[in-house]
Design goal:
alpha/beta, 8-stranded parallel sheet, 4-stranded antiparallel sheet, 9 helices, about 30% helix, about 15% strand, globular, disordered C terminus, binds flavin mononucleotide
Length: about 280
């Protein structure tokens, strides 16, 4: 099991010592043109997790390739580039411009932008034609049947899945106005974990693709639960804002979590036999 950061939750150039504790660094989503993102306030703490409406703020493809990527390479760690856009060509053109990175994560699921993207499978198919690099499709659990989307992107020749992105949510201030300027935002943190575990579980059952599991992981036990539901690797998101030492801590807690669960090796535990939908046993 490898440990990554979740896209948008770590600035590796500002905190290289945190990035170096990861098995790979995943960039914030890059779009063809620069984006300022949404107006502030665009981050809020709630009793149930973090809300963000960053809106894919990023320097744009050209500056990312010319300036950010070379500096990220100097860190000497494997890089995954998160790619976003508003039509299949946007994604495919960025994929075609990338070389010498470990993988590309296609952000097919940002809740904080208005533009409708083409279908997930259409985007994956266009990117497949544009690159031989491994393509991970990052999906949202907001779809009524995430396993169906997983099957569609597998058929379009994605190499893996990243599960899950934030879920659309609202928080109100004391005057009953939304705390975020945009109104709604993406909910992340521990409250996402049961939803994410379910998505990993059903997508693992639906496809044979490797899965990077994320959503509220804070401890070695959390990471092990994702592996038990079918994830091969995990990513840490919101926890990194409060605890930059989380990568090393989660790794060290994993051994204890395995011992307590009676598991010799997390890889032995990958994937539970049947999904809740098929009426079989739900993970204990
Ligand atoms: C502040 C913030 C920014 C994010 N930016 C991105 C992004 O640019 N691209 C993306 O695919 N996901 C983005 N995400 C979603 C995370 O990568 C992750 O899927 C989600 O937060 C669930 O994991 P967590 O509960 O551990 O944070 C962002 C999340 C947060 C909190």
């Amino acid at each position: 099991m490898r440990i990554f950061n979740a896209s948008g939750c770590l600035d590796a150039l500002a905190a290289p010592e945190v990035a170096r504790r990861l098995d790979a660094f995943v960039t914030k989503t890059v779009t063809p043109l620069p984006r300022e993102g949404n107006a502030p306030p665009r981050i809020a703490e709630t009793a149930h997790g973090m809300l963000n409406a960053i809106g894919l703020a990023n320097p744009g493809r050209e500056r990312f390739l010319a300036d950010h990527l070379p500096r990220l390479r100097e860190l000497g760690i494997p890089l995954w580039v998160s790619v976003g856009g508003f039509c299949a060509d946007d994604y495919a053109e960025t994929c075609a411009a990338l070389a010498d990175v470990e993988a590309i994560e296609l952000n097919l699921s940002c809740p904080n932008v208005d533009e409708a993207a083409d279908s997930a499978a259409e985007i994956v198919a266009a990117c497949r034609r544009a690159t031989d690099l491994p393509l991970y499709a990052k999906l949202s659990a907001a779809h009524p049947d995430v396993a169906e989307v997983a099957r569609a992107v597998a058929a379009a020749r994605a190499d893996g899945l990243s599960l899950i992105n934030t879920l659309r949510a609202v928080a109100l201030d004391k005057h009953l106005r939304p705390v975020l300027a945009r109104g709604s935002g993406g909910l992340s943190g521990p409250s996402l974990k049961p939803v994410a575990l379910h998505a990993v579980f059903v997508c693992h059952e639906a496809t044979s693709l490797p899965i990077v599991g994320m959503g509220g992981i804070e401890s070695g036990r959390d990471a092990l639960e994702f592996v038990a539901c079918g994830a091969r690797d995990v990513a840490l998101g919101t926890v990194l804002f409060a605890d930059p030492g989380a990568p090393a801590r989660v790794r060290s807690e994993l051994a204890t979590a395995c011992a307590e669960a009676g598991v010799a090796n997390p890889a032995d535990k990958t994937g539970l036999p049947k999904s809740p939908e098929t009426g079989a046993k739900v993970p204990a």
